[in-house]
Amino acid sequence: MQYKNLGRSGLRVSQLSYGAWVTFGNQLDVKEAKALLQACRDAGVNFFDNAEVYANGRAEEIMGQAIRDLGWRRSDVVISTKLFWGGQGPNDKGLSRKHIVEGLRGSLKRLDMDYVDVVYCHRPDASTPIEETVRAMNWVIDQGWAFYWGTSEWSAQQITEAWAVANRLDLVGPIVEQPEYNLFSRHKVESEFLPLYSTYGIGLTTWSPLASGVLTGKYGKGNIPADSRFALDNYKNLANRSLVDETLRKVNGLKPIAAELGVSLAQLSIAWCASNPNVSSVITGATKESQIVENMRALDVIPQLTPEVIDRIEAEFQVQSSEQRSRLVLITASACCTAKARSFRAAVQTRDGICPFARQVQRHDPAQGSAMNNRQSELSAAATEQLSSGVQMALSLDILSPPVVGITDHNNLHIHSGMNMNMKQVEQILLPQHKRGKTDTLGDHASDKNSVDRRDGEDARSHEKRAQRGHRRARKKNRIEQGVVAPSQSFYYFH
């Protein structure tokens, strides 16, 4: 078993972990839970996940009793729980200070523990001010009830807001996010959260690596094993939504790849999730000891995931190859260098590999400005090469910080502010007017070069003027606040 730091913290967690969702209380009693937990420990797992809502609290009771009966040292394991849905009362759910304090107190009582290592906000709470939640999480940490706190199924914007509050108040921010991540659900982990990894050191403990069992290959059209999750009454609707022809086609396409590697489809799917360097731990679930043994062997599959194998997997899901993804670069420009003014305000327009923002930097630091412009030229050339090959661009939409990159012809690369952009706004940037609302490729842009060029000329001038105004304001602010000017530029990549 390999162990990784949970984000930027010093807490070490096993690369694969075990979660009590669905199983404890719904399918397993204490005796069966003890056998499963011990099988996990024998494989080197030290991280176990739970939540107050799992089986209405019964999952926490079973896990706590099983760990107590097994006689484990508390310091040998990492236990997490999640707070949001605690009951039916108006104050028994959400992320108010009242529920966070009372909810965690209740979880600790059910677990029969003095503390949990990590406590998550199970969902965002629009009805509670984020400052109240951040303060409450810090309060339970100060009481010794938890060591770290994190989020689950939050957006990048919400996590950024939490960190802004924590920094302003000199408090502890969230160190981990728990999103769904598998071959069918990838947007947040691979696109939306990109700025969070380097900016805040966010780690990930991802759930549902097998897409609720779909990626085990055991399900077929009308074929649901009696002892499986989809056989439960509460999951029949999910089964109907998941077991559609297109999903099953993709799953069947992975089976030959797994067979050539000599591994199961489940092992291949878990290994694919664990191979993402931003994932600290993949939360697995199992109802049988044999499933745990099989899941743990997924770690041996990771070295076999060569770029060629990854490209074959991506081909089944119609995603760009690793080489193509590496060239779809998201570029952001920060107009101010001070910590207080970090934002993604600038819209940088590059024409023929010349970056106006780099020229602004060059006035104050020639070496930095030259290096920045050279890098910008390389990125522009890489994007143009992809354009020439006619590769369809599948960029992330509705994301917080990275901008949308719109390549409109062979010579122009435009970087647009992309904050909270929807499909209609992206179409306004990427597509000629007569093609909006239709599926388009980069090749189509090049073929309609004349109409695009006319629009580009207008867009380029307006973007450059706005960018220059922003740079002037930023420099003036820096001179007033610090007496120095040191603009910076950040680069984010798909990977």
Outline the fold blueprint.
Layout: E1 3-5, E2 12-14, E3 16-19, H1 30-42, E4 47-49, H2 58-70, E5 78-83, H3 97-111, E6 116-121, H4 130-142, E7 146-152, H5 156-169, E8 176-178, H6 187-192, H7 194-200, E9 203-206, H8 236-242, H9 245-261, H10 265-274, E10 279-284, H11 289-296, H12 307-316, H13 322-327, E11 329-334, E12 349-351, H14 356-364, H15 366-388, E13 404-407, E14 412-416, H16 423-430, H17 442-447, H18 449-481, E15 488-493
Parallel strand pairs: 3-4, 3-10, 4-5, 5-6, 6-7, 7-8, 8-9, 9-10
Antiparallel strand pairs: 1-2, 11-15, 12-14, 13-14
Helix pairs in contact: 1-2, 1-11, 2-3, 3-4, 4-5, 9-12, 14-15
Structure characterization notes:
- This protein has 495 residues and is α/β, with parallel strands linked by helices.
- It has helices at residues 30-42, 58-70, 97-111, 130-142, 156-169, 187-192, 194-200, 236-242, 245-261, 265-274, 289-296, 307-316, 322-327, 356-364, 366-388, 423-430, 442-447, 449-481; strands at residues 3-5, 12-14, 16-19, 47-49, 78-83, 116-121, 146-152, 176-178, 203-206, 279-284, 329-334, 349-351, 404-407, 412-416, 488-493.
- The strands form four sheets. The chain has an eight-stranded parallel barrel with strand order 3-4-5-6-7-8-9-10, surrounded by four helices.
- Helix 1 crosses helix 2 (58-70).
- The radius of gyration is 25 Å and the shape is globular.
- It starts with a strand and ends with a strand.
What does this entry show, briefly?
The chain is of the alpha/beta class and 495 residues long.
Q: Strand content of the residues, in percent?
A: 5-15%
Q: Sheet with the most strands? A: 8 strands, parallel, barrel
Spans of at least 5 consecutive residues whose pLDDT stays below 50 are: 320-354, 383-455, 485-495
CATH superfamily of the largest domain: NADP-dependent oxidoreductase domain
Q: Whole-number radius of gyration?
A: 25 Å
Gap between N and C termini: 25 Å
Count of spatially separate domains: 2
